């Protein structure tokens, strides 16, 4: 007995302790259940109303106080409102705490009601109850599960869900009660495939919906969202709870707003996040759809909160002149470049093979350099990939790479000089070399056509020129900036086209359907409708494929799923595979993972991995195993790690004349049907490891007798969780089955962890061609390798979280301020405070009591303040003998008086109040969009701080803080400038700063290049580009504020 086993036996493991803690709750449900089962149908429904009333009454006093405080806000001065808001926030938290206590009180009864409702539906084709108003409304809407006969409502136990007629036949068993308690407690319930997670969720969903604060049930795709809302909906609606699905309605529509007001709202993770962003771009309270984030249950929680957590949800729209693009113009040049590079890469590969086979050391070294160049030229070249899989070849190339990377890549230019461009797969970047620039420049008169100028150096030199007037300098500066912007756009377009041609493959990374380029999800093979790669990459792929090139876009709003779901008061999730990521769930979301025991013991046999020398041997063995299983009448599910491998196996099976289905991007709409039929006798289904989540594979008696569903994994994934997900497709509810992974030493995971050493073992043991090694120790070693990668990936994600948290904090501040404006608060006091702050800023910046007033730079002061607030310019006479504070006071009085005069121009004061809100919303949105781009630029370059022995995260936070303050100041100044100079000639209407044209979940485009501006962004603490040696904020930054 090992140490861990001894400790577990002595103290019990976590799973045992968790079950022991939950058992009393389950016992209470079972105690209450007999009494609930005795109730009539009407009494059962009345019991639900009793529970609602009990919960509401638990916080009556607090809710009353909240309403009273809200009523006082409008009549309170703006400086005194913050304590009221704080008090309201405190009371709202107390209400939620009291509701939680009340929910725990009624949990046994509520769970018993849901269970008995399920029993009654399963035992009766029809249930007759006294008709309520909701029953009549549902019948009037044409719902197929209820009809009205006089004063009675007849509820049926069969209805259409997900396009299929279904009859209710499910009743909760004990382990599902365990799962329901775990979900209500705000934890993650890990339940094996087939254990009825959808039914389990009905328990906490029903319970928490009784508060009226809303429950969100989150799924990974719209099919499941719509199906589950229709499947489980009648169970809730029978008890007077409203149910809807946001994916059935258009964004920003009245129907979607009603969906959010329902007691229970189903939807996909992306749409919940996008609606949050859309709400924070709204220009009127009427446009808002979401309410406060109360409680969410996330289905397939590992996929949403781990795999997609750091992927930003992006709402984008067109930029000015966004349809004026260079992709079509530059495409022929790029095709020429790629063709030249392909010939070069092929030649280098041929040279490498010849030289590496030589007995001479210098020839071998030259051969590995040629191989390295071939790799940097076209890393996805299939002959190259095949050659790198041979023993010792990749290791030799990596040693060569290390030589040229020494001393901060000092010799790297020497290695890549002969290439036309250099590809970095890890960074997903492509860089033109001098040779490449020469090729595409050709006989052009301007040899720097595709070379970016040193703009900072040029501007610095311009500032130091003495023979030019200020007007000439300004004209020259505009010329330099315009030239830089044009060349920057040209070079960027070339780079994105090169990426499209060399790093993105049709039918693997994307498909072309209906004249559009559509992204394919790498994990599932699903088409991601409506998603576009950002930064011009999508347009580059469109140019490559010869379809219509859409206009360029700019990011308007963005949030990661990780930050969105952390906004909920209570969050829980369910999945079949979470235990291996339990540490990450706790560290980031404070979510505990509880493993729920299966209803019946798992009968599936998990076989040891079979390890082969090469991929060719491995795939041949897979095909032979499939053939054997089909002949035995067993269904086979083949899991792959990419769509490309799925297609290859499909071709091999077609050659053997074996009937099969492939789950890929072209058939993604039939995913649920294909997976549901995967359990039929002799059926072969090929899918990526993540495909088909949420759909059970049911087996016939004949298939069970033949041995059940066979799972064949064609490669180990980096994460054990994904492998367990594939395994879990078999062995549902005690069904027989087996799983086995087929691995080669050429697989990515094996190459990372010791394939060289294993190859020596193969050789020393004399393992013949097409033979494999199979041992439990080997399988354990592979899982240990996966564990190391998981730990490493978690570290990367945790580091990204530190950066993302900065953006999140700033977003929360901006959106909170924006919401107050949107809700129609009187902004008059806020505008007066802006006036005072602006005057204070410039008085403190330009004047000092330590310096005589005669030496004050009045021209500078007038130049920065009067364009914002049109006061009379200060003169030497007007400030003579006065102290700074005296001038400050006079300026504030004059500024306020001017604003009051502006107010008098309006027939009604409310017109100016509405104008204040319109202008402020416009300035916030405009500046925030620019700030998003600026933060992305900062993030890309901040890693260089490490070279200066400084923590990049700390530097990022400091610079972000300065940038945020600068943005707030800019918002205030632009708002005042517009309000002081506005003339109303038409009705004041709110409008969005920019029109939204699309959403984007972008995780494949590499580092993002924000919209190119005419001016180079210089941050407050950067050295001033004029060359003075001062910080920008203490030099030209002061002058540029106007």
What is the topological layout?
Blueprint: H1 3-11, H2 14-38, H3 41-57, H4 60-72, H5 81-123, E1 126-130, H6 133-140, E2 146-149, E3 152-156, E4 158-161, E5 164-167, H7 174-184, E6 188-190, H8 197-209, E7 215-219, H9 222-237, E8 243-245, H10 254-261, E9 264-268, H11 269-279, E10 295-299, H12 301-307, E11 312-318, H13 327-356, H14 361-377, H15 382-388, H16 393-409, H17 412-416, E12 421-424, E13 429-432, H18 434-441, H19 455-464, H20 470-503, E14 510-513, E15 516-519, H21 537-545, E16 553-560, H22 561-565, E17 570-575, H23 582-589, E18 593-595, E19 603-606, E20 610-612, H24 615-631, E21 636-640, H25 643-655, E22 661-662, H26 671-676, E23 684-688, H27 701-706, E24 709-713, H28 720-727, E25 736-744, H29 748-752, H30 755-765, H31 776-822, H32 828-846, H33 858-865, H34 876-879, H35 884-904, H36 909-941, H37 952-981, E26 998-1001, H38 1036-1039
Helix pairs in contact: 2-5, 2-7, 3-5, 4-5, 5-8, 7-8, 8-9, 13-14, 13-20, 14-16, 19-20, 20-21, 31-36, 31-37, 32-33, 32-35, 32-37, 36-37
